[in-house]
Design brief:
The complex is a heterodimer of chains A (about 600) and B (about 600).
Chain A: H1 2-12, H2 16-49, H3 53-102, H4 105-110, H5 113-155, H6 157-164, H7 167-204, H8 206-211, H9 215-267, H10 273-314, E1 336-343, E2 353-360, E3 365-369, H11 376-383, E4 391-396, E5 399-400, H12 406-410, E6 413-416, H13 427-431, H14 440-449, H15 453-458, H16 476-490, E7 494-498, H17 506-520, E8 524-528, H18 532-537, E9 540-545, E10 548-553, H19 555-560, H20 564-593
Parallel strand pairs in A: 3-8, 3-9, 6-7, 7-8
Antiparallel strand pairs in A: 1-2, 1-4, 4-5, 9-10
Helix pairs in contact in A: 2-3, 2-5, 2-10, 3-5, 5-6, 5-10, 6-9, 7-9, 7-10, 9-10, 14-16, 16-17
Chain B: H1 31-41, H2 45-77, H3 82-131, H4 134-139, H5 142-184, H6 186-193, H7 196-233, H8 235-240, H9 244-297, H10 303-344, E1 366-374, E2 381-390, E3 395-399, H11 406-413, E4 421-426, E5 429-430, H12 436-440, E6 443-447, H13 457-462, H14 470-479, H15 483-488, H16 506-519, E7 524-528, H17 536-550, E8 554-558, H18 562-566, E9 570-575, E10 578-583, H19 585-591, H20 594-603
Parallel strand pairs in B: 3-8, 3-9, 6-7, 7-8
Antiparallel strand pairs in B: 1-2, 1-4, 4-5, 9-10
The chains are: A alpha/beta (about 600), B alpha/beta (about 600).
């Protein structure tokens, strides 16, 4: 409850005016609701018993007028509360979206996409539901019960005490139900989560499941999750089945008690029949809200749980953010310096990088070589400040990246990775991803330079073709060329590049090599290198092993030394060289035959 | 060609068409869908019938309340007869007790019915998904499958558990109150009915309007959903290209803003319905009091009947109001059912023959006998009359451009598809005559995307052979060179490897999937671009493991990297669904055909 207030009050503050109006409307509706049984009482006691025809006509008119007023106010009350709830949901989704996209890589390394989405969608909507219905319903129930209590006590206090008696067990049952049901809902959520995770995994890995003939095993696993969900739901609703009819029973018992004792009072002329009827009508008015209390308690439980999860995200500080007095970043020359840098990932004991120390001069090509997990990717991620170093410093043009405005820094760094992620937008928008104000001509120019123009023009809608998950599927090579165009259009001073282009056929690879070479011209380039040509072209090769630089220098020097570079060269790179030579010999001899 | 071309399509401010694609405006009642739901409800026939009976009883008890009240006033209080009052009290108490009991038992029963139907439905969907071939998955996205099994089934669950019986109850209550009103006083009843046409008109007007409204709301929601999903998935690219401000502006102004507008529009209308219904019931009440009280004054009506009548009006309009909501529920259940049963009705194109036998232990001779293949719903020929013999224990490399048909060939070997013409045989046995499980259990398949399941590294390797001992798992990991990095992980073999767990690099994941394949000890091994997504240094490591893995097994290798290809016994060059060249590396180079050309291009600088 405290959590609810702490988070809810600031969320609602901008809508004070609407809340006041909605609450006023609520009071009017409740008053109208309370007036009706009173009119009914007067109809019986004054109209019918005393045969006052004028009064009866007036009563009908009053009912009509009250009905009209209530309808109008009721509409506004409902619309305002829905409006407030929608605004708050809108605000919450905006905040979540913006916060999540600014949280650093280290946060995203740990979190699951599905869960983040469920924060933004489900938790926000259970919040929305509670605010639109639950919150005002609670208010209405409280006002109604208070009003009815006053009226009942005014009419006949002894009878009122009896009428109110069932409310005590009712409240007790409801509160106890509230705490139990929220625990059960949590378990349902978990069971549902397991079920959908297993399904999603099975469908995503359909080919692997078939390849290993694991269908029966998977069916068992799913059955297990399915059964657990079944049991949890049945258990939760069994609880509901006990409470729901019971609350109704309690209210009905109150009515019966009134009829009985009230009836006896009528016999003794201590109560009029009209009063008894009104008494009953009031109690019936409470029946529905009292039952709804069970639902509301339910909703509140869900909303609180959701709100807690939402604020868990919103209160995660992005520890990589612009420093308080961020320097505007000048146009960089592209000098990058690592000063004795160490780095480790959150929650991992071992250092991913240690003692990294080197300088890349403007326009140089730096090749990074090393096995999987040796730290190549970690190293380049520090330049864009996707992570912060543990020790040492990364400097760009002599400025520590931690002192620079993030946008200024990152907008001058272009990145082309092996798996090129495109978004479900047009090709043009994807190429202009980093510089969205680029003109169509600039986009085409970048595509031409990236060897992508030809295939793009052959697509059904050319540059306006939607790609990605919901559009046309591009091949790996095509995606990569679009990614290269994207980086080219940015015209970055520093380029980070993974030159592995293996998931394409050889013809495409040839085109890609041309595009990459064009991309690297005139910028400081860090390349996670897989090919001999890149390595040979590099001004500085850094050989990484277990997070350390074990060798550095140019190809000619390194290949002459004993060491890891030589090993890699022998195992892999030389292979490539020999192929080139041999194929040239064969190709040459083939030509000679003509 | 005109020089003045249309500007390129950039970000749109309207929801893209795909968010509406799963949203068919629905006609409502569909006998086929109802019959299919009926099949799932059939096992629960008795609990259902009992629930309906119980519900009728409790509805009678609800109607009995005002009636007993009227009885107590008219016969007891005004006639000064305490015994009638006591009788009414006793009866009322009994009615309340019966109502409590019947409601309790009914909810318990219906939960089991609703959950049971949904349990069966989900189980059938899942089992059907296991039986469908890969051609299905290439056309039906993961998101759609999830939405069928989670959302559409969820709608059906709510309908079966709550709405179905509630609809019965409301109809029953409505009829009950109608009878009670007619029985109490015909003239007053007819008076109340004069409001009904208005009520019906209002209901159908609101329903029609709100249907389009909620359709727009759902579309807006799924737009928000997909934009969110994409941006969270691509958050690293977003940050790398400093797109945060632009993305946020777009999301706030268009995606989320559109969502807000659609919701508000729907809410404005929804907020109107209840007040209008209430107003109509107030009008009815006023009419009854005007006319009724003059009847009372003329002694044609008792005060008790008038009071009961006023109370009935309130209960009469409630069910009508609710029924309109029920109808919306019914419609979305129908729409969901149509999608669910469309999925369940998808034909299983690759299935075990009725007389299928278990595949005997494979020696490994694979033969393609004039094999052609095209997808069922796409007449374009993927493979044309492939004749190919792969001797036991030899390695065949497949090269060719994307889409040439390489993957299809290996998918036919593992019988992910059946050939349209011709036959694929292993050791002379036509694959269509053996069970899929017995065949695949003897094959190992490593794919380009090394898919790992949520679970520990150990569990993922064990997936290859469920009964394998821990020592065997480690031996397999050692053999492919994965052991070292695994023990270097924080929890070793017990490290969790799902999304959000420890990040394994592509190469490491691939090594795990190699260990998984090796553990299965397959007689035929298929590597479908298995080394494409790993870096060269890791590939060197894998090459060593591969030599071990390929020894003594028949192998099909699809790769783009030459180093992987050249060591194969033979290389088949595939183009346009045919084998255009076949032979050892050296032979093909000497032929100076397409292979030699491809090969040179790969290394031209």
């Amino acid at each position: 409850m405290k959590i609810l207030l702490r988070h809810l009050v600031p969320l609602l503050r901008p809508y004070r005016k609407q809340i006041v109006l909605a609450t006023l409307a609520l009071l009017v509706i409740t008053a109208a609701q309370l007036v009706l049984p009173e009119i009914l009482r007067l109809v019986v006691d004054r109209g019918l018993v005393q045969k006052d025809t004028g009064f009866l006509a007036a009563a009908g008119l009053v009912i009509l007028v009250v009905g009209v007023v209530r309808a109008v106010v009721f509409f506004w009350q409902r619309f305002l509360s829905a409006w407030i709830a929608q605004q708050v949901a809108f605000d919450l989704r905006n905040r979540l979206y913006d916060h999540i996209q600014r949280l650093p890589f280290s946060f995203h390394d740990r979190s699951q996409t599905g869960q983040l989405i469920s924060r933004c969608i489900e938790d926000v909507s259970s919040m929305n539901e509670f605010m639109a219905n639950g919150l005002f319903e609670v208010a209405q129930i409280v006002i109604l019960i208070a009003g009815i209590t006053v009226l009942l006590f005014n009419t006949h206090w002894q009878l009122a005490v009896i009428a109110m008696l069932p409310m005590i067990p009712l409240l007790l049952i409801t509160t106890r139900f509230g705490s139990r049901i929220s625990a059960l809902f949590l378990r349902i959520d978990q069971a549902m989560g397991t079920l959908s995770a297993r399904l999603q995994e099975n469908v995503t890995g359909a080919q692997v499941v078939r390849a290993f003939a694991r269908e029966p095993y998977e069916i068992d696993r799913f059955d297990d999750a399915n059964r657990r969900l079944y049991e949890t739901r049945v258990e939760a609703f069994a609880e509901f089945a006990r409470v729901f009819p019971t609350t109704h029973l309690l209210v009905t018992l109150g009515t019966i008690a009134i009829l009985w004792i009230g009836g006896l009072l009528v016999f003794r002329d201590e109560l009029t029949i009209g009063q008894l009827v009104a008494f009953n009508a009031y109690l019936l008015l409470m029946a529905t809200p009292a039952q709804q209390l069970t639902w509301v308690v339910n909703q509140a439980g869900e909303a609180v749980a959701g709100l807690q999860r939402i604020f868990e995200i919103l209160e995660t500080e992005p520890h990589i953010a612009d420093p308080p007095e961020a320097r505007p970043v000048p146009v960089l020359t592209g000098r990058v310096e690592f000063r004795n840098v160490s780095f480790r990932y959150d929650g991992v004991r071992e250092y991913a990088l240690s003692g990294i120390d080197f300088t890349a001069e403007p326009d140089q090509v730096i090749a990074l070589i090393g096995a999987t997990g040796s730290g190549k990717t970690s190293l380049v991620n520090l330049i864009s400040r996707f992570y912060d170093v543990a020790e040492g410093a990364v400097l760009v043009d002599g400025l520590d990246v931690r002192e620079l405005a993030l946008t200024g820094l990152r907008s001058q760094i272009g990145i082309v990775l092996q798996t090129s992620l495109l978004f479900s937008d047009s090709i043009a928008e994807n190429i202009a991803f980093g510089r969205f104000e680029a003109s169509d001509e600039e986009i085409v120019a970048a595509a031409v330079a990236a060897q992508a123009d030809d295939f793009i023009r052959q697509l059904p809608e050319g540059y306006s073709t939607i790609v990605g998950e919901r559009g046309i599927t591009l091949s790996g090579g095509q995606r990569q060329r679009v990614a290269i165009a994207r980086a080219l259009l940015l015209d970055p001073r520093i380029l980070i590049l993974d030159d592995s282009t293996s998931s394409v056929d050889m013809q495409t690879e040839h085109q890609l090599q041309l595009a990459l070479a064009r991309l690297m011209e005139g910028r400081t380039t860090f390349v996670i290198a897989h090919r001999l040509t890149t390595v040979k072209r590099a001004d500085l090769i850094l050989v990484l092993d277990c997070g350390r630089i074990v060798q550095r220098g140019r190809h000619e020097a390194l290949v002459a030394q004993q060491g890891l570079y030589r090993e890699i060269y022998d195992l892999q790179l030389r292979d490539q060289e020999e192929f080139i030579e041999k194929s040239e010999v064969i190709a040459g001899s083939a030509r000679n035959d003509f | 060609m005109t020089t003045e071309a249309r500007p390129f399509l950039r970000k749109t401010t309207d929801p893209p068409p795909y968010v509406l694609s799963d949203e068919i405006l629905h006609k409502g009642y569909d006998p086929y869908v109802v019959r299919r739901y009926g099949e799932f409800l059939a096992p629960f026939k008795w609990p259902l019938i009992w629930s309906i009976i119980l519900m009728m009883i409790s509805s009678v008890m609800v109607v009995a309340g005002p009636y007993l009240l009227q009885y107590a006033i008219d016969e007891g209080l005004t006639q000064d007869r305490p015994d009638v009052l006591v009788r009414a009290v006793v009866l009322y108490t009994a009615a309340a007790g019966i109502q409590w009991l019947t409601t309790y038992v009914r909810i318990l029963m219906m939960i089991r019915v609703g959950q049971g139907v949904i349990f069966d439905l989900r189980r059938q969907i899942f089992e059907h998904l296991q039986a469908l071939s890969l051609s299905f998955y290439s056309r039906y996205s993961v998101g759609r499958v999830m939405s069928r099994a989670i959302n559409d089934v969820g709608v059906a669950r709510r309908f079966i558990t709550w709405v179905m019986l509630a609809t019965f109850r409301e109809l029953f209550t409505l009829v009950g109150i109608l009878i009670a009103m007619l029985f109490l006083n015909l003239r007053l009843s007819l008076l109340v009915f004069t409001v009904l046409p208005l009520m019906l008109w209002a209901t159908s007007y609101f329903r029609a309007k709100s249907r389009t409204n909620y359709r727009n709301v759902r579309a807006a929601n799924s737009w928000v959903n997909s934009v969110l999903a994409e941006n969270i998935n691509g958050v690293r690219v977003v940050q790398a290209f400093t797109r945060e401000d632009r993305n946020f502006g777009y999301f706030r102004e268009h995606v989320n803003g559109h969502n807000l507008n659609m919701n508000l529009r729907a809410q404005r209308l929804a907020a109107m319905f209840m007040p209008v219904a209430d107003l109509l019931s107030s009008i009815a009440t006023a009419l009854v009091i005007w006319v009724g009280s003059s009847l009372v004054l003329d002694d044609q009506l008792t005060a008790g009947v008038l009071v009961a009548f006023v109370l009935y009006i309130e209960r009469f309009f409630g069910p009508i109001r609710n029924l309109s909501q029920r109808f919306d529920n019914f419609q979305s259940t129908m729409a969901g059912g149509e999608r669910i049963f469309d999925l369940l009705d998808r034909a299983i194109d690759v299935k075990d023959a009725d007389d299928a036998v278990a595949m005997p232990p494979i020696r490994g001779a694979v033969e393609f006998d004039r094999v052609s293949f095209h997808y069922e719903d796409d007449p374009e020929i993927v493979l044309r009359e492939i004749d190919l013999v792969v001797p036991a224990g030899s390695t065949l490399a497949l090269v060719g451009e994307t889409g040439a048909g390489k993957s299809t060939i290996v998918k036919l070997v593992s019988r992910f598809h059946d050939p349209t013409d011709g036959a694929v045989r292993i050791d002379g046995i036509d694959l269509r005559t053996v069970t899929q499980a017995s065949l695949r259990r003897q094959m190992g398949i490593v794919l380009q995307d090394p898919f790992l399941f949520a679970g520990t590294v150990r569990e993922n390797i064990r997936f290859g052979r469920l009964e394998a001992a821990d020592a065997e798992i480690e031996a397999a990991a050692r053999a492919v060179g994965a052991h070292d990095f695994i023990v270097g992980l924080q929890e070793g073999y017990e490290t969790q490897v799902a999304e959000g767990g420890v990040m394994l690099s592509g190469g490491q994941r691939q090594l795990v999937s190699f260990a998984r394949a090796l553990l299965a000890d397959p007689h035929i091994l298929i590597l479908d671009e298995a080394t494409s997504s790993v870096d060269t240094q890791t590939e060197v490591q894998i090459q060593a493991a591969l030599a071990k893995l390929l020894k003594g097994r028949t192998a099909f290798v699809i790769a783009h990297r030459l180093s992987t290809i050249v060591n194969a016994d033979r290389i088949a060059v595939i183009a346009g669904g045919r084998i255009v060249e076949l032979g050892a590396h050296r032979e093909l180079l000497e032929n100076d055909g397409g292979y030699a050309r491809l090969y040179r291009m790969g290394f031209e600088e």
